[in-house]
Amino acid sequence: MIKDIPYYASNYVEFVQLFAKIAQTNIVDNKVVIPAAMGNGYLWACNLPNGISLLASNIQMNEDVLLKREASFHQYFILQFNECLNQDIQDNSFFVSKPVKAHNMQNNMVLLSGSHVSNNFFIPAASKLKSIKIIFEKKHLSSFMSEELIEQFLHFYFTKLIKQKTIEPLDGTYRTIMDTIIQPTITQHLKHQFLQTRVNLLLERFLSKNISKLENEEHNLDNKSLARLIKIEALLVENFSTPPPTIETLSRIACISTTKLKKEFKELYHLPIYEYYQKNRLAKAKQLLLQGQYSIKEVGAKVGYSNLGHFAAGFKKEYGILPSDVTAKDEALPIASIIK
Amino acid sequence: MLNIEYNHTNYYDLLAYYSNKLKAPVINNTITIPETIADGYIKMIELPNGLHCLLSDYTAKKQAIIQRKKCSENLYVLRFDEIITKDEKGKLHTKSAASLTNTTYDWIFFENEDTKVRSLSIIFSDYWLQQWLSFEQELEVIKICLSNPANAYNFEPLDTEYKYLFDLLFAKNISPKIAILYYQNRVMLLMERFFSRLYLRNVSTTFDSKISSYDLERLREVEELLLRDFANPPKSIVELSKIAAISSSKLKHIFKESYGLPIHQYYQKHRMNKAKAMLLSKKYTTKKVSEAVGYEDVSSFLKAFKKAFDQHPSSITGEAV
After folding, report:
1. Which residues of chain B does A329 touch, with a Cβ-Cβ cutoff of 8 Å?
2. ipTM computed for the complex
3. What is the pTM of this model?
């Protein structure tokens, strides 16, 4: 059975209120914890300056849910990032069981939509789903893009989307930013500023990717290949501390030949499979080093290097500096030279 | 020697002043510094959120003094500076700082030939700051901190994370079409970090402590002595105060200020942590652990353990109770 949740909301604080009513539960700080009868996880919303609204969720539902967003006369955009943590790729349920004309939330994807068309989102039962949705108005784009570029971009994005039904896969850069937002509670200081800048970082990444596509040629993959590749990519970067699955294993999971997998992967992610893996694990290593909580040895182990020499060499090849350079401390510029 | 002296609070005016002084045109809000003076640029960036920034990246070809003279208009300037100099042996020395200053104070900076300078200045009013932080619960603390004249210069060296964010401002491949959003995001990440840390410095008790370095050294000895051996009863506060040559009331006071807990509670916390670590290693029985942390009878140990962690040691060891 599918549970339908129709909604109309121009900001996510309202949506959380509606959701709380359906779930018959309380809201604390614009946050709802999903009652055990329905599933588990949480969702919270935050309204930010300049008409921006943010919804973050990390949920697992007991039954299939269909979110139906109704069309609105109030003009705004919705940018969303979805990541599903079930890797049951052999099960092709996401091709068959979902209602027609609904976006499947099981895809790891980035999607921009306009408020004037209705949209359905299907959340299959038992899937662990992390998601971020951002509402923003066109005037927000005008503050940093020329009108001409906005029109060019919107035209390109929506004609491409409608005609070819292309989905943009999530990648490591998106995930890094998403992970900072999807937490049960934001513990960072200056919370609104923190969220505002993370929203703008996601928007920046989304826009710069799509604007560069405007100029460069796009891939020619159909949706079935895309869904397959998105799952393979997620498997590949899921856990860096253990050796990655071999290309043979991946090709078996995807039910295509290794040659075809290699070719399609490169077409979508612009790198051969292992170079992509390597780039992502070193990016993860750099992020961990910058956090300053782990030693170089620990970071090496976390991204699957038992030999520190290999880690240092790999890191240097990617970034031109050694891991120890990342953690090195500068001398303080003496305060006497700054003040009189 | 080049002498630059200004008191502009508007960065468009300042850029025009630099242009005049360096005899170089402003193109796209950027001045390419003439080769005889330095190799690099000065760039003005106006962000959609109302901040004005000055970004410079150059290697000086001759000595210069740059002075900002105080003026009556009160604006904040948050600066990030990185200076790389070469010594006689050709070795590079990097110095850096993040500092929040105010236009009602003077600011001066010298640079030598071959000094490599990268700098970001962000200028904003008190009104802007209050609007920016109007939703944040940290605003009140930050306001109090900034109103204290003793805090006219809030200063800290650039650590790894600052350096990472700072470096991104000087990237070569910034896509020009949405460069403004790129700059705004990086500038806001720096602002966020600076003001979060400013807030933390002012609420944390261990920071800005009035304890002298001499007393801190004694405290470290006391702490080390206290935690050295859990198998035997700890030294009393009177004994510790004699060893440290600090009165027992002062010792109690400064110990708590530095380590966040009264002496005995601190001892007990570490004692229980050691017990838990031993149990987790699965190499010792509960009885062995209770002896190692100085309990004569196991039942008192069990009680203390339960109090500290709200769990029974058997839930770790799997032993039958």
Report:
1. 157, 159-160
2. 0.75
3. 0.71
